[in-house]
Amino acid sequence: MKPSESHTAAASFTLQGAGVSGGIAIGHAHLVSTARLEVAHYEIDAAQIDEETARFGKAIAHVEAELAALVANLPAGAPLEMKAILSLHVMLLKDSALSVAPRELIRNRRCNAEWALTQQLDYLVSQFEEMEDPYLRERKQDVVQVVERVLAAMLGTGHAPPEPAHEEDVIVVAHDLSPADMILFKQHRYAGFVTDLGGVTSHTAILARSLALPAIVGLHHARGMIREGETLIVDGREGVLIVNPGERVLAEYRERARKLETEREKLKRLRSSRSATLDGVTVELQANIELPQDVKEAAEAGAMGIGLFRSEFLFLNRDDLPSEDEQFEAYRKVADAMHGRPVTIRTLDLGADKSINGAERSGPNPALGLRAIRFCLAEPQMFLTQLRAILRASRHGKIRLLIPMLAHAHEIEQTLAAVRQAREMLDDQKTPYDRHIQIGGMIEIPAAALSLPYFLKKLDFLSIGTNDLIQYTLAIDRTDDTVAHLYDPLHPAVLQLIAQTIRGAKKAKTPVAVCGEMAGDAAMTRLLLGFGLREFSMQPAQLLAIKHEVLRTRIKDAERGAARVTREHDPTKARALLAKLNA
Ligand code: PEP
Ligand code: MG
């Protein structure tokens, strides 16, 4: 079907998923393939077939040369696996399933080359997903990567219809989107997005929140049921997607969207008010960012600092690694923009759902694999480069170093030794840095929460990553929508780990924050205040709603209510007690 065909008479239907970020968007569907680039779908004339297959062949040849150049120019500090994986990509590219089959689709179905390639990709992905061998199943990601390269090579060379003129009117519909895809969306102004897969605390969902876009994940079959250009309503709070709504429904949702906008405008008045409870207790509200340019939104929301800079996003969507100088500039830019307020830079949390191009392999079970500090300690050159860059930037503001996914004492020791080594290197070069830089650890593995004394002894501050703490406590993959219903922040085991970490840190007079999504969920604010938390870090778009909660809380009431919720083991009753606490 051509995008221009009309669907005005199409039937209306509703799909339910998990709402990941607030607000309501009304717009037109724009279907995006599994690959990172948005792919145009259009038919070609019989006379254009040869031209189209030649265009496809040219793109394949271009990528072959590109991969060969990448192998030849791998940087010295690059992970060892990169070369092997790039060679695998060359092999995949030459396989007839990628280099020949799409030509047949172009000829037989008269579809444009991009469309042919993504149809073939969808087919290959489904074949890989059926494989029993987890290693082979994972190679799906490699195929996707290769296809993305070919799509990129074809960009701007076809007869594609123009992109929708008004992005503000576009709702992106995808089977799945990676965090790397989402970061590219920061360059656009889409109205919202919906996906078939994904959990509410996946990095994809977190990025949707950072874009302040209404979004729904876990819709299962939306991508297959929706056609290009159809009218959609995305209710990001309720997780409801309405396709082809009638006039009455549209009017109703326009009214609801308008009311939400008014509420958001009202919240803006809190921007410069002091963040303190009714009984005068100051609560530090900081922002989470992914890229240096996000500091603008953090400052606009009145953030008192950056509680989490997810530095790995500087490494995505590129074929090389950012150099020490490039990283230094990025970190310095954030420090400068925050004018002496704390900037907490988390060292690389690569692995699991975030990989550098060419190193997608993260083991049979990525969330439990060579991720975050484990990956950094296995790649010391890459880690040292980042540490030097952060240290160099540290004299331009109040920079703090935060280490993700620590579990073992020896990981803490090795990390501190790496920091010492980076400092010595800078000392040798007579390069200045903040000699009092604080080093903190994330508490996001139950083992860390349960061996707190060692963390308290060795580290200057702690930050609780509830997204992973919940994932690892409950053995729920946070990116998997099929187990999303079991991902429960109110599980008594989770609450105990959080409460006891805050208590332990406070007793030791070690600063402690929460920087997972719980910190930006207004329904959790009083509970966390009741546990004794005084530092929250969240997406800038959530900050004023949390301040609103802080302003109407009395600490004594929060403490009493939080104790009741934690004592309750029945989840339904715990929810009722939380609702009472929040009333
Ligand atoms: C967390 O796990 O809660 C966290 C803040 O880190 P990330 O979401 O980047 O894994
Ligand atoms: Mg984490």
Structure description:
By secondary structure, the protein is of the alpha/beta class. The protein contains 24 helices and 16 strands. The protein has helices at 49-72, 81-94, 96-99, 101-109, 113-129, 134-138, 140-154, 179-185, 203-210, 222-225, 247-267, 295-300, 324-337, 372-378, 380-393, 409-428, 446-450, 452-458, 466-474, 492-507, 525-531, 543-551, 555-567, 571-582; strands at residues 13-16, 18-21, 24-32, 170-174, 192-195, 215-217, 231-235, 240-243, 284-289, 306-310, 342-346, 398-403, 438-443, 461-464, 512-514, 535-538. The strands form two sheets. The protein has an eight-stranded mixed β-sheet. Helix 1 (49-72) runs antiparallel to helix 2 and helix 5 (113-129) packs antiparallel against helix 7. It is globular.
Average predicted local confidence, pLDDT: 90
Order of strands across the main sheet: 1-8-7-3-4-5-6-2
The SS-based structural class is alpha/beta
The low-pLDDT segments are 1-8
Sheet having the most strands: 8 strands, mixed
> What is the 3D shape?
globular
What percent of residues adopt helix (DSSP H or I)?
Answer: 40-55%
Q: Which percent band covers the strand fraction? A: 5-15%
Number of helices: 24
Bound molecules: phosphoenolpyruvate, magnesium ion
Total strand count, please? 16
Give the N-terminus to C-terminus distance in angstroms.
Answer: 51 Å
Task: Specify Rg, calculated over alpha carbons.
Answer: 25 Å
Please outline the helices and strands:
Layout: E1 13-16, E2 18-21, E3 24-32, H1 49-72, H2 81-94, H3 96-99, H4 101-109, H5 113-129, H6 134-138, H7 140-154, E4 170-174, H8 179-185, E5 192-195, H9 203-210, E6 215-217, H10 222-225, E7 231-235, E8 240-243, H11 247-267, E9 284-289, H12 295-300, E10 306-310, H13 324-337, E11 342-346, H14 372-378, H15 380-393, E12 398-403, H16 409-428, E13 438-443, H17 446-450, H18 452-458, E14 461-464, H19 466-474, H20 492-507, E15 512-514, H21 525-531, E16 535-538, H22 543-551, H23 555-567, H24 571-582
Parallel strand pairs: 3-4, 4-5, 5-6, 9-10, 9-16, 10-11, 11-12, 12-13, 13-14, 14-15
Antiparallel strand pairs: 1-8, 2-6, 3-7, 7-8
Helix pairs in contact: 1-2, 1-4, 1-7, 2-7, 4-5, 5-7, 8-9, 13-15, 15-16, 21-23, 23-24
The structure holds phosphoenolpyruvate and magnesium ion (MG).
